[in-house]
């Protein structure tokens, strides 16, 4: 029987942002799994990807049909073993699943922020998380782990708070977006802003830009899969028996993308999509911005995981993270997992990830 998890909320005032602005009255929604030990040395922070949330594992109610997004990795005996570790996952700043974001009420206007919400960065997101970790009175995290944008947050922890973590597991991620990655995000943003219902972000309480947001999700979803996985899942199969010779969707892959888009608009805010993708595009911890060499951090350990068929965040980007760490003398292990699933592999290649992460965390625990 799966664990029923109750979301929690942490609130604080005044977060100084990289833009120079100050955000007031911040809520961070989070969930925890397992138990914190007496000296609070077994805490692991899980970072969710772009469209994820704090619900990483377990159920919110006994009759829930779908558990948290990384339930097959978090739990008793799993990669992040809740019999041994205290696992935390929070919804990011700028999100739309309980944490403060564009759809939240601005206390100064008593209306939704919309585009009045300040532009945020991954560093701002991590700074908000650090407030939560301080609230939980955890001085040092045993590990920080996450895939995709979650991996960016892992790297930002290394830059912002390296002395507050013992290890890091960035998965299928990058030190900075390439022009192609920025381009995909910009096309998605333009799709949202071109929707007649977007209304410069002032659509709350009115008809929302569902067509634009759905299209943005469809564009994104293509990048999460691979040519091989799409061939295996859909090939050129038709929904009907033969071509209709009409201009409408008739391939199975078209119906799948439409379903993904329609499902997404029911749970995600269009303005959050704009803000979070912008934060991803701003992210850059390469070169001089990368983690500094320090004798104080010599015991830091790293496990960097990539996937062979991931063309959104291709393995060379993760390999470069490992190379930079090794050049600075850090203990870094790089693994490129063979998979046909594309970028989605970090959610699907459970057996290989579990084996690698379990072994890695055993080593980290022994050395701390």
Task: Tell me about this structure.
This protein is α/β, with parallel strands linked by helices. It folds into 2 domains: 8-176 and 283-366, 3-Layer(aba) Sandwich (Rossmann fold); 181-279, Rna Polymerase Sigma Factor, Chain: A. It is built from 10 helices and 14 strands. It has helices at residues 122-135, 149-160, 179-194, 210-224, 227-233, 252-264, 270-282, 315-327, 345-348, 350-366, and strands at 8-12, 15-16, 22-23, 26-33, 43-47, 74-75, 80-81, 86-90, 105-106, 111-112, 143-147, 167-171, 301-307, 331-337. It has an 8-stranded mixed sheet with strand order 1-4-8-5-11-12-13-14, sandwiched between helices. The protein has a two-stranded antiparallel sheet with strand order 2-3. Strands 6-7 form a two-stranded parallel ribbon. Strand 2 and strand 3 (22-23) form a beta hairpin. The model has no long low-confidence stretch (mean pLDDT 96).
How does CATH name the architecture of the largest domain?
A: 3-Layer(aba) Sandwich
Q: How many distinct helices?
A: 10
* Structure summary, number of beta strands: 14
At the fold tier of CATH, the topology name of the largest domain is: Rossmann fold
Termini Cα gap: 33 Å
Low-confidence stretches: none
- Tell me the CATH superfamily of the largest domain: Alpha/Beta hydrolase fold, catalytic domain
């Amino acid at each position: 029987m799966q664990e029923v998890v109750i979301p929690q909320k942490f609130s604080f005032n005044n977060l100084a942002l990289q833009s120079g602005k100050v955000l007031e009255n911040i809520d961070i929604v989070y969930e925890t799994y397992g138990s914190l030990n007496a000296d609070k040395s077994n805490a692991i922070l899980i970072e969710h990807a772009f469209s994820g949330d704090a619900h990483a594992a377990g159920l919110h109610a006994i009759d829930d049909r779908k558990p948290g997004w990384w339930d097959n990795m978090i739990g008793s005996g799993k990669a992040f073993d809740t019999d041994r570790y205290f696992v935390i996952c929070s919804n990011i700043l700028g999100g739309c699943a309980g944490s403060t974001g564009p759809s939240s009420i601005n206390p100064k206007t008593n209306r939704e922020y919309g585009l009045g919400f300040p532009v945020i960065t991954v560093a701002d997101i991590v700074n908000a998380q650090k407030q939560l970790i301080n609230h939980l009175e955890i001085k040092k995290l045993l590990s920080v782990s996450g895939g995709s944008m979650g991996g960016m947050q892992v790297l930002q922890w290394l830059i912002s708070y390296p002395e507050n973590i013992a290890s890091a597991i960035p998965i299928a991620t990058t030190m900075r977006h390439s022009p192609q990655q920025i381009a995909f995000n910009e096309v998605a943003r333009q799709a949202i802003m071109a929707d007649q219902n977007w209304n410069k972000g002032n659509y709350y309480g009115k008809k929302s830009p569902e067509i634009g947001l759905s299209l943005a999700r469809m564009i994104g979803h293509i990048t999460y899969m691979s040519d091989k996985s799409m061939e295996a899942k859909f090939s050129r199969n038709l929904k009907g028996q033969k071509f209709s010779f009409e201009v409408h969707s008739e391939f199975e892959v078209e119906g799948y993308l439409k379903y993904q888009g329609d499902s997404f608009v029911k749970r995600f805010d269009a303005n959050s999509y704009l803000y979070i993708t912008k934060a991803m595009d701003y992210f850059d911890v390469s070169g001089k911005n990368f983690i500094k060499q320090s004798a104080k951090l010599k015991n830091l350990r790293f496990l960097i995981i990539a996937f062979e068929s991931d063309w959104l965040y291709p393995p060379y980007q993760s390999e470069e993270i490992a190379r930079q760490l090794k050049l600075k003398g850090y203990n870094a292990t790089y693994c490129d997992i063979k998979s046909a699933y594309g970028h989605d592999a970090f959610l699907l290649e459970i057996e290989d990830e579990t084996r690698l992460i379990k072994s890695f965390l055993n080593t980290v625990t022994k050395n701390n």
